[in-house]
């Protein structure tokens, strides 16, 4: 059950990676984040594999094992489970941090685009005013030239 949810997470990471590569827009930050996420996923896979092996050993415990050996195995499983929980939390936090950084960068980018768009509109209005003034001045100059030539 936990293994299938982990496989689903890995598939999502692969799909995100493929979609980013398909778009051809991989920034260094994205590449680094994906590498870190994949390394964390690899660590989780290794821990899952080790945990599975320990669980199989636990199932194979014969009634001849002493209670001390069984207690040691249970302690190992508890430690592995705690480590896995910590790594999972770290991975989730890393993903959330990365997502918030991307959202922040996007909002800054949109703000700059809006600012540039507004400046372009203001410049267009100002250019229009200046062109009208130019036309008026050219008309006055032509009138003065006509009056002067008479």
TrEMBL record:
Which keywords annotate this record? Coiled coil
Task: List the coiled-coil residues.
Answer: 113-147
**Protein's name according to its UniProt entry:** Uncharacterized protein
**Source organism (scientific name):** Nepenthes gracilis
